[in-house]
Specification:
single chain, alpha+beta, D-Maltodextrin-Binding Protein, domain 2, 3 domains, six-stranded mixed β-sheet, five-stranded mixed β-sheet, 20 helices, 18 strands, 43% helix, 20% strand
Length: 478
C-alpha cells in the first residue's frame, strides 16, 4: 500500500510538472511570413513591418489569446515559386507575391486536394496600367524600342507578372511568341549578369529591376509596362487553415501593413533610406516607386482591376499549360480580413476602393512657391546630404536647379522627371527631351520624343543637351 501511494505521488508530481509544458505548447502560436524584400513594392507587407516590429504592436493578448506566446518567423525569398513551395509545405502561413505566382500557388493547393486553400486577402501595390514591369536591353545595345526585338533573344522570369506583360507586348506587335522571338526563363539575379555580358538581347522583369538595372548602369529601359495596359498587382496570400483558426491574427498583420503604408507615405525619404539597408535596393530606386507620384501606387484595397488581373493571370497560366484546372477566383479573393483591418484602423475601406489617386506631391515647388498643378511636368532633385527631396514645377526648373547646385560643389544623388504622356517617373539622366525654346518635355523613349516634336515642334535632345539648354554656362562651352 505504501509503495502504491509513493507511486501515485510520483505520477501526480510528474503530471503537475508536465501540465505547464503542455499548456505552453498549446499556447505557442506560429506566425510564419514569407516576403520578397527586393521586390520593393511589397515593402508595406514585408521589410517595414518586420524591421519596425509593427506586427507585435497589433497582436492580441486578451480573450482566447491571453496566454498566447507568439513565434513570429520571417523568411525572405527572391521570387514567388520557392515562397509558394513553403506555403504548400505548411512552413509559412502568410506570403507576399504578385498575381501570377499567387495563382500558381492557389492552383497547387487546389491540386493537393487536402481541403486547405489560400486566400488572396489584400493588395500591397499595383498599377492599373501595368507600370512597374519593364523590358531592358544591355547599355551598349543599339536597340531603342520594343519593335526592334523581332528575332531576338529575350529572357523573363517564367510565370511572372512580367511574363504576361511581355506576351502582351509581343501580341501587340502582331508577332508569334514561338516564332518571332526566343523567350528563355531567367531570374533577375541571373539576368543582371547576362545583360552585362551581352548574353541576351533583352530582359523583361517586375519591380524594381526595370529601374534598378538602369540605375546601376548595366541596362537601358526600352519598354514600360504601362504601354501594355496589363494591370499588375502584388498582394498578400494566407493559408485558409491559419486564417480560419486565427482570423484575429490575420487582421493584426493587416493592420501592421496599413501602418507601414502610412509611414512610407508620410516619410518616403526616411523609409527609402531604411529600405536600402534592409533590401539592398538603392534609396533612389525605392523612392522612384514609393515617393509621390511613384511608378506604382501602394494600395491595400482589392480594386476590381486587381481582381480582374488575377482572373487574367489564371486564364493565361492555363493557356501556357502552367496549370491544368480552372481556379475559382471568387473564392480565392477574400476581402473580409482587410475590410475588418481597415475598420479597426479607422480607415474608410469603401472610399479607398474608389480612390485611384497617386500619392500626391505635397508642399510648394521651390521655383514657383506654389503647389504642383501639373504632376506630369514636375521635377525633383535629391541632393547628397539632404534629408528631403526638392520639388520643382517643371523639368527645366529641376535641371537648372541641379546644375546650380553642382556648380556650388554639391553632389546630386538623382534627378526625377515624368514621362510627358504616361506620367511614369523617370531618372532624368536616362530620359529623352523635347526642347521648345527652353521648355522641356521628358520621355522614356526616343521614338516618343520624336513623335512629340513632330506634332508640337521643338528639338529632341538627350540629358546632356537638355542640361545645356537650361544652363547658359554649359551652352557657351558647347
Amino acid at each position: 500500500m505504501r509503495e502504491q501511494m509513493k507511486k501515485y505521488k510520483l505520477l501526480l508530481l510528474a503530471a503537475l510538472l508536465i501540465k505547464p509544458i503542455l499548456s505552453q505548447a498549446e499556447d505557442q502560436i506560429r506566425i510564419a511570413i514569407g516576403t520578397q524584400d527586393t521586390t520593393i513594392n511589397c515593402a508595406a507587407g514585408g521589410a517595414v513591418v518586420r524591421e519596425l516590429h509593427l506586427l507585435e504592436k497589433y497582436l492580441p493578448h486578451d480573450g482566447r489569446y491571453k496566454q498566447a506566446h507568439y513565434d513570429v518567423i520571417w523568411h525572405n525569398f527572391t521570387s514567388g515559386p520557392p515562397l509558394n513551395s513553403e506555403l504548400l509545405a505548411d512552413k509559412l502561413d502568410i506570403g507576399n507575391m504578385a498575381d501570377f505566382p499567387a495563382v500558381l500557388g492557389a492552383s497547387a493547393f487546389q491540386a493537393s486536394n487536402n481541403g486547405v486553400r489560400t486566400y488572396y486577402i489584400a493588395t500591397l501595390s499595383g498599377s492599373v496600367t501595368g507600370a512597374g514591369n519593364a523590358v531592358v536591353v544591355p547599355t551598349s545595345s543599339p536597340i531603342q524600342s520594343f519593335s526592334a526585338l523581332k528575332g531576338k533573344r529575350i529572357s523573363v522570369p517564367m510565370g511572372s507578372t512580367a511574363h504576361a506583360m511581355l506576351l502582351r507586348a509581343i501580341f501587340d506587335q502582331g508577332w508569334d511568341p514561338e516564332r518571332d522571338v526566343t523567350i528563355v526563363s531567367q531570374a533577375p539575379e541571373v539576368a543582371g549578369s547576362a545583360l552585362k555580358a551581352n548574353q541576351i538581347d533583352a530582359h523583361a522583369d517586375f519591380v524594381p529591376f526595370g529601374e534598378l538595372f538602369p540605375f546601376r548602369g548595366i541596362a537601358r529601359k526600352i519598354y514600360d509596362g504601362s504601354a501594355s495596359g496589363v494591370t499588375t498587382t502584388h498582394g498578400i496570400q494566407v493559408r485558409s487553415d491559419f486564417a480560419e483558426k486565427y482570423p484575429e491574427l490575420v487582421i493584426a498583420y493587416l493592420r501592421a501593413t496599413l501602418e507601414a503604408d502610412r509611414l512610407i507615405r508620410e516619410k518616403p525619404e526616411d523609409l527609402c533610406e531604411k529600405l536600402a539597408q534592409w533590401t539592398g535596393v538603392e534609396p533612389e530606386v525605392c523612392y522612384a516607386f514609393h515617393g509621390p507620384w511613384g511608378i506604382q501606387t501602394r494600395d491595400f484595397s482589392l480594386k476590381p482591376e486587381f481582381i480582374n488581373a488575377i482572373r487574367q493571370a489564371e486564364i493565361t497560366l492555363r493557356q501556357l499549360k502552367k496549370t491544368s484546372q480552372p481556379l475559382d477566383v471568387d473564392s480565392f479573393v477574400n476581402d473580409r480580413f482587410i475590410r475588418e483591418a481597415a475598420k479597426e484602423s479607422g480607415i474608410d475601406y469603401a472610399a479607398r476602393l474608389k480612390d485611384y489617386t497617386p500619392v500626391p506631391f505635397t508642399g510648394d515647388a521651390e521655383d514657383t512657391g506654389a503647389p504642383i498643378s501639373e504632376p506630369r511636368l514636375a521635377g525633383q532633385i535629391w541632393i547628397k546630404g539632404e534629408a528631403k527631396v526638392r520639388l520643382f514645377s517643371t523639368p527645366e526648373a529641376a535641371l537648372a536647379a541641379g546644375r546650380k547646385e553642382e556648380s556650388e560643389g554639391k553632389a546630386i544623388r538623382v534627378v526625377y522627371v515624368h514621362d510627358r504622356q504616361s506620367g511614369v517617373k523617370l531618372f532624368a539622366d536616362k530620359a529623352w527631351y523635347v526642347n521648345q525654346g527652353g521648355k522641356l518635355a521628358a520621355f522614356l523613349l526616343r521614338r516618343s520624343a520624336d513623335d512629340w516634336a513632330s506634332k508640337h515642334g521643338g528639338a529632341v535632345s538627350d540629358y546632356t543637351d537638355a542640361q545645356r539648354a537650361v544652363d547658359p554656362a554649359l551652352s557657351a562651352k558647347k
